[in-house]
Design goal:
The complex is a heterodimer. By secondary structure, chain A is an all-beta fold. Chain A is built from no helices and twelve strands. In chain A, strands 2, 5, 6, 10, 11 and 12 form a six-stranded mixed β-sheet that branches. Chain A has a four-stranded antiparallel β-sheet with strand order 3-9-8-7, with no helix packed on it. In chain A, 35% of the residues are buried. Chain B has one domain: Immunoglobulin-like (Sandwich), CATH 2.60.40.10. Chain B is mainly beta. Classes of the chains: A mainly beta, B mainly beta. At the A-B interface, β5, β6 and β10 of A face β10 of B.
Chain lengths: 114, 115
């Protein structure tokens, strides 16, 4: 079955340190991959996406993500975390079936400590 | 350009009462989604529209939920009667069309509390 996993409910990082939020998926074919962020009491905002091409994609607020086809992963990264990066992060995968189904991960709460 | 507009932002009702949420997508966006998000969880698709046609409503609890997008622009999601388990944030999103690469633009959401 097609699925998206974010194995960590919460990630704690000290300000200034690099951060990684993990996402893996299970799908046949070539999916499209997305990261969204949700700040408290706000709707979800798009961060970045992988469609094709270079495996390293850059997005908003200094975030980047690396697509690894062999490991079916799309981990979100940032070289130096800011306190303002604290939020809920969602990985989403669009399966290119007839319905363009978009499957969401359960989310990872990122906490950046000063 | 205005984003996706949702109203009301907050609604508190007693169980068994009806409630309705309204969404105005970004101008020109043909595809509209309604999602439900429980606290600390990812969004769950309720219904997706292509213009005025509901193309995916397989996850919509049709015994109590209904939705419409009569002119292919704004949309209303209704719950009647509401149950305690319906307490959640109801998110509306839109895209220019149903292309796999399109990014969803979300509204701020409507937070429902059922007492």
């Amino acid at each position: 079955a097609q699925s998206v996993a974010q194995p960590e409910d919460q990630v704690n990082v000290a300000e200034g340190n690099p951060l990684t939020v993990k996402c893996t998926y299970s799908v046949s074919g070539n999916p499209y991959l997305f990261w969204y962020v949700q700040y408290p009491n706000r709707g979800l905002q798009f961060l970045l996406k992988y469609i094709t091409g270079d495996n390293l994609v850059k997005g908003s607020y200094g975030f980047e993500a690396e697509f690894n086809k062999s490991q079916t992963s799309f981990h979100l990264k940032k070289p130096s975390a800011l306190v303002s990066d604290s939020a809920l992060y969602f990985c989403a995968v669009r399966f290119m079936d007839s319905n363009y189904q978009l499957i969401w991960g359960a989310g990872t709460k990122l906490i950046i400590k000063p | 350009e205005a984003g996706v507009v949702q109203s009301p932002r907050y609604k508190i009702i007693e169980k068994k009462q009806p409630v309705a949420f309204w969404c105005n997508p970004i101008s020109g966006h043909n595809t509209l989604y309604w999602y439900r998000q429980n606290l600390g969880q990812g969004p769950e698709l309720l219904i997706r529209y292509e213009n005025e046609e509901a193309v995916d409503d397989s996850q919509l609890p049709k015994d109590r939920f209904s939705a419409e997008r009569l002119k292919g622009v704004d949309s209303t999601l209704k719950i009647q009667p509401a149950e305690l388990g319906d307490s959640a944030v109801y998110l509306c999103a839109s895209t220019p069309g149903e292309s796999g690469a399109n990014v969803l633009t979300f509204g701020a959401g409507s937070r429902l509390t059922v007492l």
